[in-house]
Amino acid sequence: MSNRKLVDYSDNQKVNVRVEVKKEEEIEEKHNQIPKAPDRLEILKLIEEYEKEGKFDVDPEKDPPTIVLTPGQVDYLRKKYLSKVKTAVAYTVGKQFFDAMLRNNKLIIKKINGIENWNELKTGAIVTCNHFNPLDCFTVEKVFRDTVHYQNKKYLYKVIREGNYTNFPGFYGFLMRNCYTMPLSSNKHVMMEFLDAQKEALQSGDYILLYPEQSLWWNYRKPKPLKDGAYKMAIKNNVPILPIFITMEDSNIIGDDGFPIQEYTVNVFPAIYPSGGLTDRENAINMRRENYELWKNCYEEFYKKPLEYSTDKEVLEKLL
């Protein structure tokens, strides 16, 4: 018979439970000490209204007024000497800024799933991602820097709004204009330059980040209905779609806005390719729907609940 003494851990378990409860109470108390920023509360209210009305592509953020681009104003592929210098500076400074945010827990990437799906690509691709924060492109950029393609001197371009390129102030404006961004434009001649540049980039094996939801909803966790543009672009250039969906959890750290800083899990899915025997329009619709289903399933698996919207069902069916 063993002479080992049996130990009753029940008291220890009770202590652990009390410690966890105390931690939760301390976190809650800290939450209550920092007032929630009025502008963020207003944005959350607008998001709630827009979801109910089915206005998923309407951006509640107050973007700067658009100054229309003129032909030749944007060196999309950074071929000019001055463009190369500005981009090198912006990319270095942007990387240092983002890495500092990670070190200081101003932004938290908890986990990256499926990076092998990016590594396995043999061509350029359109990268799609849900859009919930002005800095989520830095998160995708961080994942890209961990791939073999970054080591092989490929680039990740980010498609941005015209006004964010032409009229965004200060430090962020400098990054917007110079950190491998591709602005859209209401000028048709500039858009021709954009299309030519994205074609050359994709054929060179580079990547273009697009937000097919076409709106930024701050800390919105659900996937929004997607537009066809990204998928048409992929088909036209004979490249796949690489879907990314970022899920979020509240951390124990409260930001300056009074809300918990989010912990991100980045989910990179296998590439989506067009199918033979279908028209371009049919392929675009199928690829969009497959992208959405991947995001929907990821949402439901991560958050452990069905994806539901407050939108009227008939309105929602038309959007999906």
* SS-based class: alpha/beta
CATH class category: Alpha Beta
Characterize the main sheet. Answer: 7 strands, mixed
**CATH topology name:** Glycerol-3-phosphate (1)-acyltransferase
* Count of helical regions: 12
Secondary structure: helix percent? 40-55%
Name the strands of the widest sheet in spatial order. 1-7-6-2-5-3-4
Radius of gyration, Cα only, in angstroms? 22 Å
Outline type? globular
Span from first to last CA? 68 Å
Mean pLDDT: 91
How many domain units? 1
Question: Which architecture per CATH?
Answer: 3-Layer(aba) Sandwich
Give the amount of beta strand, in percent: 5-15%
Low-pLDDT runs of 5+ residues are 1-10, 13-17
The sequence of SSEs as H and E is: HHHEHEHHEHHEHEHEEHH
Number of strands: 7
